[in-house]
Amino acid sequence: MNSNNPSVEKTGFRYGIYGGLAMMIYFLILKVIGLDKNDTVRFLAMVFIIIAATMAIYYFSKHKVKGMFYLNGLGIGFLVGLVGSVFYGIFLFIYSYFIDQSFTADLRLMDLFGSNLSPLMIFGANSLLGMIVGTFTGYITMMYFDRSRREAKDF
C-alpha cells in the first residue's frame, strides 16, 4: 500500500483485522479468568472496534494526500466494524461449535435468545453489533476529522 495515498478498503480491512484479533485475545483472557459468561464484560470487546476504527481514521487522515472527506471516514468505520466483527464472529462460531459446546449451553441458560440459540446466531449477533458500533464510531469520529468544509474565518 502506498503510504502517501492509502485506500479506504485497505485501511478498513487492515484495522478491522487488528480489532478482530484484539477481541479474540480479550475473549481468551476472559475465558482464562472465568468471566466469559458475564454479558457486560463480554460486551466490552466492542471497545476494540471503537479503538481500531478511530486509529484507522486517524491513520487515513494523516496519510491521505488530498485530505479526508466525511464519507471516507464512514466507509472506514463500517469496514473496520464489518471485518473485525465477522473475524471475531467466525472465531466465536468455531469456538462454540467445535471447542466448547458448553459455552452455547451456558448462553442458552441466560435466556438472551431463548432456547434456540445456536453458534450461527452468536456469529450473526456479534457481526451485526460490530458493524453498528463501527459505523457509529466512524460517524462520531468524522465530526472531528472532517476536512471537507472550510473552517469559519471569524473564530
Automatic annotation (TrEMBL):
The chain crosses the membrane at residues 12-29, 41-61, 73-99, 119-145. Keywords: Membrane, Transmembrane, Transmembrane helix. Signal peptide: none annotated. It comes from the Bacteria. It holds the Pfam family DUF4199. This is DUF4199 domain-containing protein. It comes from Adhaeribacter radiodurans. The lineage of its organism: Bacteria, Pseudomonadati, Bacteroidota, Cytophagia, Cytophagales.
